[in-house]
Design goal:
alpha+beta; two-stranded antiparallel sheet; about 55% helix; single chain
Length: about 350
């Protein structure tokens, strides 16, 4: 039993508008992505994550813009704003807006997770995509660049992060990152993070509507309660594994502790969902291995990120999963990317 995660990101409409502006018809978009074009005009339309990835791929192909994840922000404004963004817009400070983003992120996209850490002098916002099946760099670029742009818009100040890190290799269009983020940038890191000065996060948001904020927050809390009650235990375990693989905490007991259930309860719940902890661990590692290689990671880096004790154990597992060695897989992928294999 598998539930396919969905997203209601405003980027759906922005990408549709972009494709339409380039002469692509709604029927053609539907053939390319599997998205029913008649639904896109509805507020808070939800589509499955694999279809969203295909929509990003279609946008990049049609526009010949590999930096579309960063550039799409210029296509906003023709339609509505997601109500979760409106909650953030009507918060008291940037710090409160960030906390609301963290709490309600799953109401926009079920695979998004925002963690916030505070210290005496800074806030660290960590963005992760908890779906190990499909990772999309454009989504990461889009969400993180929009976050910084929103900070500047809400405070009407030229906000500068202390630093921003990304979990993928530096792209050829690095100069665009510099233009947008205006701070030290680091690629091939363990996490996608925005580090902000604490005093800046205490900045008041201009034009806050207290009544609208209260109404929408109550609505979001009710939706979040329904979502959390309906989420499968297998999804929760996969999310936990994705976050904890590099730490090596990969036991059924530790997963049960995190989910606040007994070992036997978790085992029973997963069995009811026709899976097991070991099956989810294997599947998550297999899917993330493919993603990390496509992101430019080498064997040692990938083995560490997947929680293997040594690269040789990972190489044996990878050959079992895909029938080829990691080196053969990376070589074949690079050839395909260059268009030499159709």
């Amino acid at each position: 039993m598998t539930k396919v995660n969905t997203t209601s990101s405003i980027a759906i409409i922005a990408l549709f508008d972009l494709l339409l502006d380039h002469g692509i018809t709604p029927n053609e978009i539907e053939k390319m992505t599997g998205i029913d074009a008649s639904l896109v005009g509805e507020s808070e339309v939800k589509i499955e994550i694999p279809k969203m990835v295909r929509l990003w791929d279609a946008g990049i192909k049609i526009t010949s813009d590999p930096a579309l994840g960063l550039n799409l922000r210029g296509n906003y404004g023709k339609h509505f704003t997601h109500f979760v963004v409106t909650i953030a817009r009507n918060s008291t400070t940037l710090a409160e807006a960030a906390r609301h983003w963290s709490r309600y992120a799953k109401l926009i996209s079920e695979v998004d997770q925002i963690d916030i850490a505070e210290s005496d002098d800074q806030y660290i916002l960590t963005y992760s995509n908890t779906c190990s099946k499909l990772q999309c760099i454009s989504m990461i670029e889009h969400d993180m660049s929009k976050a910084v742009c929103y900070m500047r818009e809400l405070t009407q100040q030229d906000c500068h992060p202390l630093e921003v890190t990304f979990c993928y290799p530096e792209p050829e269009y690095r100069s665009l990152y510099d233009e947008i983020f205006q701070c030290p940038l680091h690629f091939n890191q363990k996490e996608n993070r925005i580090v902000m000065p604490r005093d800046l996060m205490q900045t008041k948001i201009i034009g806050r509507d207290h009544h609208l904020h209260a109404v929408l927050k109550k609505h979001a809390d009710s939706l979040l309660q329904v979502y959390e009650q309906s989420e499968l235990f297998s999804q929760k375990v996969e999310t936990w594994l994705t976050e904890n693989l590099p730490l090596g905490k990969l036991t059924l007991d530790s997963a049960a502790d995190y989910l606040n259930v007994s070992r036997s309860t978790l085992h029973r719940k997963l069995k009811q969902e026709q899976t097991s902890f070991s099956d989810i661990l294997e599947k998550t590692r297999k899917e993330l291995a493919c993603y990390y290689f496509k992101s430019g990671m080498n064997n040692v880096q990938t083995a560490f990120l997947l929680g293997f004790t040594d690269p040789s154990s990972f190489q044996h597992a990878f050959r079992r999963w895909y029938g080829v060695s990691p080196g053969e897989f990376r070589k074949d992928y690079r050839v395909r990317e260059c268009g030499q294999i159709k």
